[in-house]
Amino acid sequence: MSQILGVVMLIYLGVAIVLVMAELWFSPRLQQGGRGLLWAGLTLQTGVLIERWVSSYTIAAGHTPPAVFLDQLSLVIMQAPLSNRYESLVFFAWSLPAVGLIAFRKNLQGWLGAVIAMLACLLLAYASFGADADIRPLMPALKSNWLLIHVMTAFLGYAAFAVAFGAALLYLVKDKRPQARLPAPPLLDRLMYRAIMLGFLLLTFGILTGAVWAETAWGKYWSWDPKETWSLITWLIYAAMLHARRLKGWQGRRIAWLALLGFLAVIFTYLGVNYLPSLHAYQT
Amino acid sequence: MPTSKKLPAKPKSRLWGWLTSIRLTVFLLLILAAVAVIGTVLPQDQPPGYYFGRFGETWGAIFYRGGLAAIYYSLWFLAPISLLALNILACIVHGLPRALRRSLRPLTFEAALSLPERDKLKWPKGVDPRGLVADLLRRQLGRTRHQALPDQDIYFHEKGCFRPLGPYLVHIALLCILVGGLIGKFWGIEGTLPVLQGETAEAFRVGNTLAPLNFQVRLDRFQVLYYADSAMPKEFRSDLTFLQDGKEEMKAVCRVNDPVSFGGLTFYQASYGSQPSGPVRLQVSYKERQETIEASPRQMVELPGGEGRIMISKVEGNLQGLGPAVEGIFMTGRGMGGHDFFMVFQDHPEMNQPIGPYRLTVESAPFQFYSVFQVKRDPGVWWVYAGFLLFLPGFYLAFLRPHERWAVVLQPTPKGGWQGRLLGSSPRAREDFDLRRARLLEEFKKGTPS
Fold first, then answer.
1. Interchain CB distance below 8 Å, B227 and A212
2. What's the total number of domains in chain B?
3. How far apart are CA B72 and CA B36, in angstroms?
């Protein structure tokens, strides 16, 4: 399976290159080709994801065959490939083009599309070189029906924030060099806002489902675990941004800087927390 | 009173203005984020010695006395969060009545007429566009209303009129969650309960004190179950019996992710361990000799031949799925010098490494499991969950349901044809609005015979 994932990684790299060429040569046909290729990569990766889910389920059902339909359903949910660092990296890589293409449609092209495709490519590269790809049985702490919805909403949210990050980068470049051939600042600003809105919605859901899960697993809906705290920090930064947009003088550049800061917090929530003692240390 | 405008704002209203300002919100949110960052960088809730030892006299004092060592319970956190709660409350009081009025007041044709004009439409002589427009708007937008005036016909439509309530629901939800947290703090109880297998507990630990349970709980059995052929634990399982005055009331299994409630308290599987419950019998092979020794936990025992001593520190009940294992340290000779940790399995002697010149096998290693539960009662949790539920409609209205208003005004021209104006607005979803507007124009064009 990891070979196919390698192909997906190359496709994402190809998408980034094609989209950059499309920008340099002003070629709508290349834009279309790049987007088509991104869809192809996403479809292929979806296939790989489902394959891993199925084999993960088959192995688990081999250990303890589910007796009734509800057990079976719950086992399907729990065996979603979201239970360790490798799987989360791969899912993060999948969320980027998925959220980008589905929620932002035609806006995901050119430089923005290239940024997203490149991020997805880097995540897959990290997954294949820096993480253990074996399917492992699920540890007791993760055996919960909340696993799927909690992890999915969190990562889809991260992906939306990545889109906002890309738009913010472009905004700041355009701001510095107005002659650069980039989308107009108002468009980028709106795109940033929409991405942050979507990410905020999903992140909030991720935190809420996590809190409900923590209440059933640990007896505390909130325990100031570093991962929880960092997700709250991320949430606070984006909440500040959603409010700041309504203040005079806070549109545009400052918001773009806040979006960069917010995405740094996202990255730290995801990766940096592993260096702090955490109840979320499932990532080995 | 025209003069009142020139007077400086009253102190009360200035305070109110400050309390309801978004500037304050943004400031507080960023302050809270910064405080939380400190809370994750500086280890929290450690004994004072830790801070003095690690950061020195001055910084240790600043961190510990300044409340930074328990930052989420200090003013650093509580002051901005309280102010934020006030800020939210003030904004709700300030804006909710108007939002409610706005949501409950349907769009009237007068209001529709004052919507900003977006496009002009024209129909040639002999074509009556009224049926066409009504039909088309119904198909594109849904239910439309119609007002016929002597000189013009107005078709208007409104969608997402509850949009203004969305943000208020979200903010009320946040207040609910904060109230839930406070209720939990003041009326809830939270502690830990360690029980040895086979024993009955009547109290649990809350901080440094013991809180009585008004019932008894017995740990009948604790098990760590492993996946087949794997060192990966599959389940931590405690079989509990709850008793009232010595009479069995309920039997239950408590697992991680699967808590048990009894007598108003909830028990969560939090941790476990095992402790030796008697001397361990070990068979020692030394050169050609074999001898059985008895070693009491935490006591130094001389090994045959005098080449070393051992001290048993721990008996694991089920280590890596391989059954009981004895752990301890081994010291050579008489000096207090070098010592090695060792570990011997009872059921897997083939895995036991030689220890110096010795080989050890376990004959018997009596042990007792204990299990640790998180115990709590939190009446605030329902407020928190209510807040979570309120978030759903709040976010739906605030983010996914833009407020859209449309109107088409038709007027006959002096030449016998018709002219129309397309009016509309959607302040927070301009892109969707523009798309729909383009589609409407296209449909109008398509439906008009030229």
1. no
2. 4
3. 8
